[in-house]
Every structure is written in C-alpha cells, then in structure tokens.
C-alpha cells in the first residue's frame, strides 16, 4: 500500500523580511512614545506648547538678548532706566559676573596673595583626580596625602603667617574658596566621626549607645541654621573668658558636627544590612573588635551605602550656603553682597544674573558628584544584589 | 591519653583582668562618664562666668517683657507692645504656616513629577527628569534669594500692578487676592463640614463592612466627596449666605481690601516646595518601581483595568516603600523653613534671633529653638509612623 508522505521539512531558512513600516522609523517611535493614546496625545501637545512658550524666553534671556560686555550698569539698562537698550528689554547682564568673578572666587583675599589660593587649588585637584580615577595605582598613598597631609598644606598656605608668607585673616576669605574649605573640612571630618557615632549607636555598652543616640537625634532634629547659630553664639559662652574663636572655625565646627550625625545614620543603615554571619565569621576567626569592624564589616557596609554617603556630601555642599546667615561670605554670600551692595552694577537684571551664575556653579558640582557616585556604584557592584 | 585527661580536669587559666571584655567595657564607660562630667562642668562653669561678666540674668522672666518690634506677617493679633512670648507664638505659627503649605504643594508636585518620570510619554518623561536634576542640585537658599531678589523684587510698583484673572494683582508688595469675608459667623458652615466629614467616615466604614460581608462594592469616593462639599454648602445656604467676597481695590498709592500674600512668604514657599518636590519625585519613582512586575501582570490577569489596578494593587504596595523617606522629606522641609531668616520672613528662627539681639538671652532662646523644632519633628514622625503602620504589610 502506497502511503502518501505528507510531511515536509523545510531545509533552507526563510528570507528575512523587513519589519512592517508601522513598527519602525520615526513615525512608529512617535506613535509609541508620544501619541499612544488620546490622553498621551493631549499631554504631548500641552507639554510641547509649554516648552515652545518657555524655552525661547529662557534662551533669549540667557544668551541671545543678554549683554556680554560693558564697564558698568549703564550697559544693562534700557532707555527709560537711563541706558541705551530698547524699552522693555530683559536679558542677563554677564559683564556684572565678569567684573566680580575675582570676588566670587576669592572673596577679599589680597590680590597679590591670590597665587596661594590657586596653588592650593592645583594641589587639591592634583590629589583629587588620581584618587577618583580607578585605574591609577597608589590609592593608599594618595588617600593619605589627600585626607591627612593636604589639610596641613592648605592650612599653612591659605592662612600664612609662617615661612615668610604674610598672614591672611579668615574674614578676608570668601567666595568659592570658603564654600570649598567648609565642604572639604565637613567631608573629611564627618566620615570618621560618623563611623564612630554609628559604631557607638550599635555598641553593646549602654552608656556609649545612649550618648550616641542622644547626640545623633538631637542634631538631626534641629535645623542646620540653628546648629550654626549655636556654634556662633554659644561656643564663645562655653569657653573661658578671653579665649576667642575664629568665626570660620565656629562655622566649621557646626558643619562638622551636623554632617557627622547624618553620616552616622547612613553608615548605620549599611551596618544593619550586613548579615549576622559576617560578624560571627569574624569572631570565629578570632578577630578583635577593631579588626572585625575594620577588615570585615566596614568595607562591606561602606560599599553598600556609597550612594547615601555621596548624597550626604551633596547635601553638605549645598548646606554650606547657610553660613551666609551667620554672615560669612561663601560663594552665595559674595554674590548676594555684590547684588545688594555694589551700586556700580545695580540694575533690575543684576540679581537674576548673579543667582543664575551661582546656581550654575553649584549645579555643576552637585551634578558631578551624583554622576560620579552612580559610576562608582556600578563599578563596585559585586553582584550580590539582584 | 593522660595529657588529654589532664587538660579536661585542669581549671581554665584565668586571663588577666586587662583582657576581660566585661571589665574593659566597664572601665571604658566609667572613663567616658568621668570625661563627660568634667567637660559639662567646665562648660557650665565658663558659661556662668561669661554671663556674670556680661550682666545677663538667666531665667524665663524676659518672656513677659515688651517686644518693641513689629512683625508684618502674622496670623494672630500682635503689636510692638505685645510680649516677647507673643512674638514667639507668631513666629511658631508662621513656621507652621509655611511648613504646612509647603508640604501640600511639594507632595502634589512631587507625586505628579514622580509618576511623570515613569510615563510612557517620552516628552513628559524628559521634562520631569530635567526638573528633578535641576532642582535637587541647587541649594534651596539660592532659590529663595533668586525668587525674592531676582523675580519678586523687580515686579512693577503698586501703580503698575499686573492684573490677573479674578481681580487679583501682582506687584512688588506681593500677591493680592480676593478675600472671603464672613458677616457674622461661619460656624454653621464649619459645622456642616464637620458633619460631612463624620458622615463620610461612617459611610466608608459601612461600605467596607458590606464589601467584606457580601462582596458588593459601593462608590465611597464620590459619596464622601458629595458629603464633604455638599454639607457645608447646604449649611451656607440655610444660614442665609453669610459671606461676601472682598476684592482688592486699586487706589493711587496702595491696593486696599482683599488678602495679601507677602513676597517673603511666596519666595519661601515656592523655593522650599519645588526643592522638596524634586526629592519626593525620586522617592515616588523608586516606590512604584519597587513593586514587582508580577503584581502588574497579576492584576491584568484578574481583569482589572490599569487605573483600578494601579489604585488597588500597585499604589498600596508602593506607599509602603514611599512613606518612611517621605517623612524625612517633610521634616527637612519644616527645618528648611528656617531659611526664611535670609529674606526676613518672620518665622520662629528669625523672631528668636531678634529677641536674642534685644535681650541677650542666648541660652533660653536656643532652648526654645530646640524644644519647638524637636517637638515638630517628633509629632510629624509620630503621625507618619502611625500612617506607616496602618499601611504596612499585614502578614497573617
């Protein structure tokens, strides 16, 4: 009996066909991402209209109608205000920033001594960049130089009074210099203090624990402004009569105490995330408390909370602006002072221009830090999670 | 064999006391307490000496003294003849005012932006991302000053006020809005509101009980909305419409009538709420992304529409992740309200600073700061903890 073999096996691949035109190209992308539903379409149109209204105004103000050169306020005034620009003009007044740039960077630091600040900045960068680049070796030496040696170099270089350098008192410091000094000191002191406080809070010794909890919760419960205020009004009361404190030093103490309390909580989160087995493993190896913490627990805990630590740094950097309230002149303080106290540049646009400039500087620093922390997080991810 | 026997029977050798962890910790703590007492004693001694030298008497008697300074933005009666205590109350109320308004605005904006960052719409997603990246990387104090000196201070003078819809005006003295004036008392309306709230709570309870018993659902949201809006409205009509609207009138030198939102308050509110909103947006995004994808698939499999599934399945689970960090953002906003001192908004810190300058009672003023801010923190976290337990996973 003859059987019909109906099975059929295809031996060569079917030719690939192009995707349907409704699924590829700009049209499909727009259908999927911009006009997926009537509601989406409405949202897109509204958002596009809002952008079309706002963006040209912002760009015009920043660049196209902005004034780029001039010697004083008349460059940025309209005819009715006594200048030469057409009536109804608005735009940034960049020559104001250009003229005050030195003040924004160094404050009232003497002109002929500014090379010291610049040298300090160069050393800072020369130590910081290799520290942050993973491929460059000698990390331990670099870290010691950056965290332990550099503060002394900076202290003698910036303050002076030794080695033939003239003494520059801190009330003359200002601008970005003060912002960076406060954030650097805050960052460098808050990490070790925070680790000690976090360990204290998890300690088995009741008194150590109580003291850490009281300190952390009290400091976290009050605003930084109040802490700075205390540091600036109360510290002089606490020390023997006749002993005076530098104003900048008082702010530094306030900032360091404040940020260490926040840092302690971040690190505590990391400590809590380490499984009990790690502690027990260290104990069974016969390690002492500090060996256990330093070699087993802390490296894992700190790695877990890098984003939190960097967020605290970013917060600290933004919080340095608050020293303005106890009348220290950081970057924001110098900008504010130039706006309200400099008649050469008093125009309706000065304030906006100055603050936009300061905002850009702060934004670059904070955004850079957050990007770097995301990069480190990806790099250090050993794949335990997910 | 013999040696093992010997080990078993011999007493464990006593380690020296120096290596005993218990003794060590006792000694260490005793030393710590001793140092602490010494330090505190030194500080107190110095403080007493310093205060004696500058002729400042400690104590709370100064609170009854005449304040002598004026506060422009106030919620309760206050003149420069009022006491320091009253000035502090005005300051606390102003702090609470800006904190509560800021929390409401920040929550609304933050949730919108956070959900927007997860939208399918590319344009909305990008706009929300840009918003978050810009606002959370700029210090709030800078934004406050930008609004105050950069935008609101260069608004036109009173004569050239910008007219906005509903007879409101914007000028260098702030934002003028129509005000509602109660002829007589609005007690009836308040009573109506209270009755509406109680009734809707009762309806929600009954509806829940019914759904548990019979499985039938009841449109609780719409009924309670109708009750909460309807009852005060009914009371208003019944009591003979006792309210009129007072529009701001444009005079030659000033706007009269209406209510005025001061530029200080406006700058502080705008800056704080938009700054905090950028953080809340990130928290909301993380919360929604923290709900496993299986949950979305499960509600689709059960046949729920996306809107209902989001409301009944995703959001309750996301809230569990969102609430704890949201609490700390609320506390941050409250604490950041102290930045108002930079632009002269009379909140607690700025009033306290003025009092300190007048009386020199540094310790008392700082103690008041501590007490007020700590209690605001504790009350907020207590409330949010209660809400958190209510929302937390109930494992059976």
Which regions of chain B are unreliable across 5 or more consecutive residues at pLDDT < 50? Answer: none
Indicate the overall shape of chain B: globular
Give the SSE order of chain A as H and E letters. Answer: HHHHHHHHHHHHHHH
CATH class of the domain at 84-178 and 247-391 in chain B: Mainly Alpha
- Could you tell me the radius of gyration of chain A in angstroms? 29 Å
Major sheet description of chain B: 4 strands, antiparallel
Structural class of chain B: alpha+beta
Organism (chain B): Neomesorhizobium albiziae
Family (chain B): Belongs to the binding-protein-dependent transport system permease family. HisMQ subfamily.
Pfam families (chain B): BPD_transp_1 (PF00528)
Domain ABC transmembrane type-1 (chain B): 92-384
Summarize, please.
The complex is a heterodimer of chains A (386) and B (396). Chain A has 15 helices and no strands.
Topology overview:
The complex is a heterodimer of chains A (386) and B (396).
Chain A: H1 25-33, H2 38-64, H3 94-106, H4 114-132, H5 139-159, H6 175-201, H7 206-221, H8 224-233, H9 235-238, H10 247-273, H11 276-284, H12 289-304, H13 306-319, H14 331-341, H15 350-380
Helix pairs in contact in A: 3-6, 3-14, 4-5, 6-7, 6-10, 6-14, 7-10, 8-10, 10-12, 10-13, 11-12, 13-15, 14-15
Chain B: H1 2-9, H2 21-53, H3 84-116, H4 122-135, H5 140-151, E1 162-164, E2 168-171, E3 174-177, E4 179-182, H6 187-214, H7 220-238, E5 243-246, E6 249-250, E7 255-256, E8 259-261, H8 263-289, H9 293-301, H10 306-336, H11 348-359, H12 362-391
Antiparallel strand pairs in B: 1-2, 2-3, 3-8, 4-5, 6-7
Helix pairs in contact in B: 3-8, 3-11, 4-8, 5-8, 6-7, 8-10, 9-10, 10-12, 11-12
